[in-house]
Amino acid sequence: MRRLVPCNALTIRAEPIDAMAFAPYGDVVAQPQGGKRTDWSAALAHPRPQASLSLSTANVAMTRFPASLTMMERHPHSFQTFIPLDVSGYLVCVAPNGADDLPAVDQLRAYIVPAGIGITYRAKAWHCPMMALDRPGQFSILMWMSGDGSDDEFVDLGKPVTVQGA
């Protein structure tokens, strides 16, 4: 059963992704500088021995600004990594956990991520579904899943949040 997040109508402005600003929610997975290798495996940790690593792909419809957000999700036990396969840019929206264990919608942030940059959401990070900008996109998705019904949690926003372009 999905919970309802009581909130007021809100309009926010998307900003370019910045690794430091995004750090409370996860990692920005960027190409290494100078041909070196970057190890992102620390994000692969998970606490459930019964979970299996899931690798999937998804087609994502194009979103235009102003975007309207009506729901959020989180994965209580696992990170979730999105690696763009074919996308010109995409919108990532995140919110911290509120005192009631629901997203603090009044602190929601929106980031524009350019082509070639992936993101990893930390376990328990509230986020909106992926939204491709400019044209439809394709992503590879990596996370641990047990299939016991506890992998995902979804909530509906009481009022839509509008996201304006940068």
Q: In words, what does this structure look like?
A:
The protein is mostly beta strands and 166 residues long. It has one domain (18-33, 51-164): Sandwich (Jelly Rolls). 2% of the residues lie in helices and 49% in strands. The strands form three sheets. Strands 3, 6, 9, 10, 12 and 13 form a six-stranded mixed β-sheet that branches. A five-stranded antiparallel β-sheet has the order 4-11-8-14-5, with no helix packed on it. Strands 1, 2, 7 and 15 form a four-stranded mixed β-sheet that branches. The longest helix is centred in the first third of the chain and has 4 residues, at 19-22. The termini are far apart. The mean pLDDT is 91.
Descriptors:
166 residues; mainly beta; Jelly Rolls; 5-stranded antiparallel beta sheet; 15 strands
CATH architecture: Sandwich
Helix % is under 10%
Shape: globular
Distance between the termini: 35 Å
Chain-wise SSE layout:
Elements lengths: L2 E3 L4 E4 L1 E2 L2 H4 L3 E4 L22 E9 L1 E2 L3 E8 L5 E7 L2 E7 L13 E6 L3 E4 L4 E2 L3 E3 L3 E9 L7 E12 L2
Parallel strand pairs: 1-15, 2-15, 3-10, 6-13
Antiparallel strand pairs: 4-11, 5-14, 7-15, 8-11, 8-14, 9-10, 9-12, 9-13
In short:
By secondary structure, the protein is an all-beta fold. It is 2% helix and 49% strand.
